[in-house]
Amino acid sequence: MSNIELIKYFASIDKPLIFEINDIVFSSIHPQKENLNYYLENIDEYNINEILSNNDYKLFGKQMKPLSWRDNAKISYAKSHLDKEIGRFRLDFLLNDSINPTTPYDLTEFKDIEIDDNNLISISKMQEILKSSKRIFQILLTLPVPNSMYWCAAHLFALSKTCDVKVRLDPFLIFNKDGFSQMNYKMFIYGKPPDLNSYNSLKETTHVRWMDDQYDFSQTQFTDAVWI
């Protein structure tokens, strides 16, 4: 049983963590069932009680029957904290290129592609690869949800028509094109889509909101829309 194996699995799927954890919890044959059970069983009692006593959890928390409220609290904790662990795992992997292969650039699709010292490739080359390859590659995630780069990627592809845009591809989000469902869960992104053209004439600070799946809505993240 391995937390690292579980975290690597979650970092490599194209489905939001909240859905995948629920699927594993209610499955009897999932390959990660034992690892997730081990993770849930070893959550500190203090963290479980903190969730159970949280007013937001009492108001907004949902009991997934036949699980008890205590088991539901464990799942809520796992959802929010695995997000953070996945982010750290992804960053550690990228910072240890001397130890880890420079995935996905070690695959045959990138044999003749120029990769700079920061492991960035031209996004136009990425488009060419996506058209010819039997695999799907995605831009490195900056938030812990597979579809979090949906709006950003669309604008980066558009910008590549007028300037040289380079991106780092995600080392874990690699899928076979056959059977890949290109679905984006827009309901997890709140607020207006970013309008890059308007950023040239901003007269005051603009914020973009990202709401994750945590029960504690006081932790909703706000970020400045920054351009250089």
Essential attributes:
228 residues, alpha+beta, 3 domains, 3-stranded antiparallel β-sheet, two-stranded antiparallel ribbon, 7 strands, globular
Instruction: Specify the biggest β-sheet.
Output: 3 strands, antiparallel
Write down the Rg: 20 Å
Secondary-structure element order, N to C: HHHHHHEHEHEEEEE
Structural class: alpha+beta
* Count of distinct strands: 7
Portion of residues in beta strands equals 5-15%
User: Helical percent range?
Assistant: 25-40%
- Overall tally of domains: 3
The DSSP helix count reads: 8
Mean pLDDT rating: 80
- How far is it from the N-terminal to the C-terminal residue, by CA? 45 Å
- How are strands sequenced across the largest beta sheet? 5-6-7
Nutshell version of this structure?
Helix content is 39%, strand content 12%. The protein has 8 helices and 7 strands.
Fold and architecture overview:
- The chain has 228 residues and is an alpha+beta fold.
- It has three domains: 3-95, no CATH class; 108-176, no CATH class; 186-224, no CATH class.
- The chain is built from eight helices and seven strands.
- It has helices at residues 3-11, 17-25, 33-41, 45-52, 55-60, 69-95, 123-132, 150-159, and strands at 121-122, 135-139, 166-167, 169-176, 189-190, 207-210, 221-224.
- The strands form three sheets. Strands 5-6-7 form a three-stranded antiparallel beta sheet, with no helix packed on it. Strands 1-3 form a two-stranded antiparallel sheet. Strands 2-4 form a two-stranded antiparallel sheet.
- α2 crosses α6 (69-95).
- The longest helix has 27 residues, at 69-95.
- It is globular.
- The model has no long low-confidence stretch (mean pLDDT 80).
